[in-house]
Design goal:
alpha/beta; six-stranded parallel sheet; TIM Barrel; binds 6-hydroxymethylpterin-diphosphate
């Protein structure tokens, strides 16, 4: 899953793709590099980010979703939003996956919209809300707590009419979590995989990777950590890898998957876990 951030303030690529043509060109480049899905987002979720109104978010993402759906029809377009109205318009414009970092808690009617549209959805764990989520997050056992949350949100989505086979789950690396929490979730990812739905992992360029590698400041320095964590997640059963740097991560995953041999199959041009 390649990331297309149409924002001025995303933590690692804010402002680079605010122009729709630049965002579309970037999405096409990520497809060339091997992305099977493009995740288009118009609101940063980094700690301290300013909230964006519906109209502004729509103005950012809609031309990009439309342009990509037209230009790469075989590629799944995901809309990264917590707003029902943005999801609705993006689905109408060609998206077929709703990536909601609030797991349908942010906007009433999101679950019903996804159910009625028949779209896929990604339900992600987040403790608190983006503005304050990194202020001293605490858990009993982070893996047990995230697993219980995802199980409950999956149940709520199914109750609202979403087909279970349409649901992806994501432990939400960096969303209300210390570096230690992130590492525990990655080390015990198979416990999340045991929920029975494909697991999405999003470590790409996140700050804990730089801190672990000796305090490197820039997101662009975090590619080695991004690769390491995605390979470990693959080995533990993750199936979708949400990244900025598709080509190097794809190459690493293909080699890792080949090394894992019979535990993997290739389906429809993408590598899919069989653990
Ligand atoms: N991480 C970010 C945004 N959306 N969605 C899922 N499912 N999982 C993630 O880990 C995830 C996500 C943050 O990354 P990015 O989009 O690059 O930054 P920003 O939110 O600042 O735009």
């Amino acid at each position: 899953m390649g990331i297309v951030n149409v924002t001025p303030d995303s933590f690692s690529d804010g402002g680079l793709y605010l122009d729709p043509e630049a965002a579309i060109a970037h999405g096409l480049e990520l497809v060339e590099q091997g992305a099977a899905t493009l995740d288009v987002g118009g609101e940063s979720t980094r700690p301290g980010a300013d909230p964006v109104g519906v109209e502004e978010e729509l103005a950012r993402v809609l031309p990009v979703v439309e342009g990509l759906a037209e230009r790469v029809p075989g590629v799944q377009i995901s809309i990264d939003t917590a707003k029902r109205d943005v999801a609705e318009r993006a689905l109408a414009a060609g998206a077929s996956l709703v990536n909601d970092v609030t797991a349908f808690r942010g906007d009433p009617g999101m679950a019903e919209l996804v159910a009625a549209s028949g779209a896929d959805c990604c339900l992600m764990h987040m403790l608190g809300e983006p503005r304050t989520m990194q202020d001293d997050p605490r858990y009993g056992d982070v893996v047990d707590d995230v697993k219980a949350f995802l199980s409950e949100r999956m149940e709520a989505a199914v109750q609202a009419g979403v087909a279970e086979e349409r649901i992806l789950l994501d432990p939400g690396i960096g969303f209300g979590k210390t570096a230690e929490h992130n590492l525990q979730l990655l080390a015990r990812l198979e416990e999340i995989v045991a929920l029975g739905r494909p697991v999405v992992i999003g470590t790409s360029r996140k700050s804990f990777l730089g801190r672990l590698a000796g305090g490197r400041p820039g997101p662009e320095d975090r590619l080695p950590g991004t690769i390491a964590t995605n390979v470990m997640a693959l080995e533990r059963g993750a199936e979708v890898f949400r990244v900025h740097d598709v080509a190097p991560v794809r190459d690493a995953l293909v080699v890792a998957a080949a090394t894992l041999g019979g535990r993997w199959t290739k389906r429809a041009g993408e590598t899919t876990a069989r653990t």
